[in-house]
Specification:
Shape: globular
Strand order of the largest sheet: 3-4-5-2-1-6
Radius of gyration: 16 Å
Order of helices and strands: HHEEHEEEHHE
Distance between the termini: 32 Å
Largest sheet: 6 strands, mixed
Number of helices: 5
Strand content: 15-25%
């Protein structure tokens, strides 16, 4: 698992040591803001031509996350392009993932966990095999506007 926050945390630690101040707390993202950011992430995937983008509202279904995005890529480079686009879009909003798995050429599932949102990008084979659409069928679907 890669943690994008490593460099930021090191920078913050250096800044904290020099300023002798308390560590900054993570921002709380309310439900409305979480939905807004989720829609932006889904739009970023759509802009990269990923297919079958499904946004799941997990309220009342699980406490794992507020939202899941499921998307299908036609290739490993498209999986990376999609995850990079989401990363860039959310970074501009000051949000970084807690963790994500390595995206190698053999991967069939790429996951980025933002806490309130988990982005799942699959190859067609991976989407069919893991079938998260069926697993999370109780979740309400949100239309990409």
């Amino acid at each position: 698992m890669k943690l994008h926050n490593n460099n930021i945390n090191n920078e913050n630690n250096n800044e904290l040591n020099s300023n002798k101040s308390k560590p900054k707390k993570k921002k709380f993202i309310d439900r409305e803001k979480a939905k807004e950011l989720t829609l932006k992430a889904a739009k970023a995937l759509d802009d990269k031509k990923l297919e079958n983008i499904t946004i799941l509202d997990l309220d009342g279904v699980t406490t794992l996350s507020d939202y899941f995005i499921l998307a299908t890529a036609s290739s490993s480079p498209q999986m990376k392009a999609g995850s990079d686009a989401v990363y860039k879009e959310l970074k501009e909003e000051g949000v970084l993932p807690y963790a994500e798995n390595d995206n190698d050429s053999e991967a069939v599932w790429y996951l980025s966990d933002y806490g309130f949102l988990v982005v799942h990008i699959f190859t067609e084979e991976g989407r069919e095999y893991y079938n998260l659409d069926k697993l999370w069928h109780e979740a309400k679907k949100i239309d990409l506007v």
